Backbone:
């Protein structure tokens, strides 16, 4: 019987929230003097936007391995899908900018 924790939806939600929270923490610590829109414009103009987004996905790696270690394979799969979505976003953004 599967645990409530072991489901694809939870993995997807955590896989999206972890990078979003990481971006928020980086913003509050490093770039709080900027308005959020100004920050995006600054990161795009300095070609650092995709690099910051890529680094903010690193917490997904820890979540992925934690879920794998606990044998929560569906949750791990959700985190992997969210990470792939972020990778596609970075790839498309890199091409477009």
Residues:
């Amino acid at each position: 019987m599967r645990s409530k924790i072991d489901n694809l939806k939870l993995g997807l939600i955590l896989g999206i929230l972890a990078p979003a929270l990481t971006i928020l923490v980086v913003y509050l610590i490093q770039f709080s003097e900027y308005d959020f829109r100004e920050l995006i414009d600054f990161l795009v103009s300095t070609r650092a936007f995709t690099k910051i987004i890529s680094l903010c996905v690193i917490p997904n790696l820890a979540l992925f391995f934690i879920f794998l270690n606990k044998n929560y394979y569906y949750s791990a799969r959700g985190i992997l899908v969210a990470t792939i979505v972020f990778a596609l976003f970075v790839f498309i953004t890199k091409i477009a900018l």
Summary: The chain is about 80% helix and 0% strand.
